[in-house]
Structures
1.
Amino acid sequence: MTKPRMLLADDHTLFVEALHKVLETEFELVGEVGDGRSLLEAAPRLKPHVILMDLSMPLLNGIDAAHQLRRLVPDSKLVFLSMHGDPTYVTEAFRAGASAYVLKRSTATELLQAIRTALRGQIYISPMLTKEVMDPLLHRRLTAAPVQADLTLRQREVLQLVAEGRPMKEIASILCVSQKTVEFHKTRIVKQLGLHTTADLTKYAVAHGLVSL
């Protein structure tokens, strides 16, 4: 029987190595990436049945990557494996196209169950998550305003890279735009969010799961 193809996306090498032992008997591990932009490049090329991904990743966070993966690889199931159990993060992950959300402190048995559920076309949410999260998700009542609703995807990309401490020139290179364009987006972000310093932007990005400490 052919094993489902899986792509891993997590920037913690030791954790990924541990995942291999859990997953390799049941899945064909076709690739590993350590940041969101590498994930967007690898997924269309590898065409995995399932992508097991972290929420906090360098260069592009999991939620914003998921929004683009839904277009790039619409048949791939997205399974989030994250340390974040905050209701906002979980809701945003499912808005972005997730099929499952599992906490990193869950057991290997639960992770396998979540992946199998996703591959059957069903939704899985870790039982450790609160009823406050589960009720609206299970009943598809995701009516709350999304995180950073006032920011465009490009603004969110710029915000994350600024919060990661990357200089304007590097951000421009990563996004394939001019440095002036990056500065324009940063100015708009500062104005829209009512923040004043790079430190303020970084705190905001951490609080909203765009970057991790």
2.
Amino acid sequence: MRSKVSIIGAGNVGATLAQRIAEKGYADVVMVDIIEGLPQGKALDILQAGSITGSDARVIGTNSYKETAGSDIVVITSGVTRKPGMHRSDMVLVNMNIVKPVTEQVVKYSPKGIIIMVANPLDAMTQLVLHVSKFPRNRVLGQSGVLDTSRFRALLARELNVSVEDVHACVLGGHGDIMMPVPRLTTVGGVPVTELLPKETVNKIVERTVKGGSEIVALLKTGSAFYAPAAATAQMVESILLDKKRILPCAAYLEGEYGIKGAVVGVPVKLGKDGIEQIIELKLTPEESAALKKSAEAVKELVRIMKLK
């Protein structure tokens, strides 16, 4: 029996994610959107592609949450996307009013499911979902670090002219401008990247990684990234559904780890059938630890704006 994954929001990220999961064939997919016809049309298109890709997964589009009942994983992508010049914090109250009722419906129909947040500002929205759902922290997480490390890895691989498969990057902290790439813990074929590239080059790549989302928004002008975010989320979904126990950087609620309490922050975690099965604590330098705590404070400030009670 195939697993069930529901995706809330049938925009670019949601539809691309649905396609990736459906093509794998290990889960049936339900896409929900408030726009009539949009999820139904995209779902039908993806379903018909299955006869070409060899997938028997069912793909359903709907405007109701009833079809999501009993989902193993629910991915929330619904929310406004960034426009050029817009900071993620500008979206916090707008997306809060979208994510809160969505979460209530998700909990109603899939009370035992795992929720993955994709909408921005990601860390704050993940904390909102945790607050509204009352789920244990292992069943609520955000997709950020997988995406951020993918950007870091791609840029490093291109600079060094090596396969991305041999680049293992470390990015901690909040998503967006408050992320914290850690070159010291980033390796290429087991060799720290700091030994392979000049410091100035590494710093430039770090800066471009941090501004990666903004760079794409500026180029597109009428949207934001969706191919890489969808691929990153699909990797998380697969690790959970197939109980792969992958160590992946995700937005997780910390309760004292890294000296941080009461904030959702990007850290490496073990992802398996129960969601976050372990938070991996890396040994950081005093400077790195201070930077991570600063990133956590930025997330807490967004949470304060939402006035969660």
3.
Amino acid sequence: MSTTDTTVPTLRTALKSYPQTQALLKGDVSSPRIKFDFQEIEPIHRAFKPMAEKQAFDVSEMAIFTYLQAKAFDKPLVLLPVVLAARLQHGCIVYNTDFHDKITPDMLPGKKVGVRAYSQTTGAWVRNILSQEHGVDLPSIRWITFEGAHLDAYKEPSFVTRAPEGGKDLLSMLMSGEVDAGILGNDLPDDPKIKPVIDNAAEAGRAWFAKHGLVPINHMLVVTKKLAQSHPDIVKEIYGLFKRSKAMAPVKAGAADMRPIGFEAISPSLELVIDLAFAQQIIPRRFSVSELFEDARQILGADA
């Protein structure tokens, strides 16, 4: 954090543009008490490691599983009750019809499945779907990763293998048949030969949401503990600005709010995140939601 001549703090901030953040990024929502120095980081996940390991920003978007690992390794971050990204993940595991006529979840044991990193949020949600909805034994799959976790201290489970360094990326290996299936997110190719492993994936995702009513959280908002401890008033102001920005992009009538804000709105979904992170050996123990939000509640008040 830096200050100007008029002592208005400038916050180094890593944030992607979403409907609910556009007003903030464009300056349509602002405060005379703070300024944001928005960093252009694409893809946004490149901000997560420097924030987790070195607190390179004052305010940052962060994958929820990165935050959980940061919490496990006592990194000085504070989680705010702001969901920035979420999606139904059933369509994110795909295969190449050039090499397989059909792959279904029950066919995955023994096959090579690529994912950018074992701790990647999309990968964790897809594995939860495979395990809980299709009964797949996750260690029976030959998981191939292409990079490590955002926390250097984390060690992948023994059933995970790293792809050769300097070789192809996940999409290239999927297209060449070197992996049988791959978990992709925003980088899903628009190619007719790439098909989802889960049949009727969009419908399956909607059915899951209708049944559980939970949000598959990808990214949330964090600030440094240094900022929270030295300037809790600024953190409270940040939270208010994100709420105002979201209000300028209201959810369409009848649509589900996939980017909730507030402790009560987020906590049930966060419980599931914690459970599946522990079950998949991403964190060493189950945290409680109250642990994750302890610092934020002290600053924002219990009813935020």
4.
Amino acid sequence: MKEQWRLLNTNFNTAFTNMAVDKAVLVTSSEGKVLPTVRFYGWKPSAISIGYFQSLEEEVDLNTCRKLGVDYVRRITGGGAVFHEEELTYSIIISETHSQIPKNILESYGRICGAVMKGLDNLGIESEYVPINDIITGGKKISGNAQTRKAKTVLQHGTVLTDVDVDKMFSVLKVPNEKIKDKLIADVKQRVTSIKHVLGKEIRFADVAEAMKIGFEEEFEIELIEEPLSEEEKELSRKFEKECFSSMDWNHRR
């Protein structure tokens, strides 16, 4: 009998809620209260998440974000600034002592990204893993990923681009030298792709989520059982959103 893990499909939420839910599940998982969890979610409104160690003011054009109604939030994982709009985001939260998760961080990235690649394969998209945290197809990036380990628990989350608006992305991200902005935009358009661009058609969020669900089940040889957040996780999410992810102190801390 296959091991059962929990599937959370929380659909579309604000940036603050999305990050709060990831942290809430990290807490309950670290206390052994929930099964290993795979979560799929989207962002509404569009948002920028910055890495834990980044400066919000240096990375993000806050005035343009306000004009366009784009959220911004600091993640608990590292890495660079990411514009979230047309995409499916996944997270996996699991004990770092679980037999399915390599202790070596690079190997664990590869294992988890393998599930995403199998999900893409289910959509008819061949891809490959490029260490440390990218997945590419046809030489172009379609998924970026970030990981943290806290309280002996692994949290990895990443994006699977369903579409991409590079011009809008650069309107809300700061560029160190405006003179090279056009060149940067052209370069990113050459290096980044999406499910829509690869397949030549739009794919519904629900269909991408189903493909990814199967991908995780295939990679880890498990059965994902859809369950809601526990009452404790809902309470923790509200607490973390209010006290942390929607607060000026957290987002402007560096």
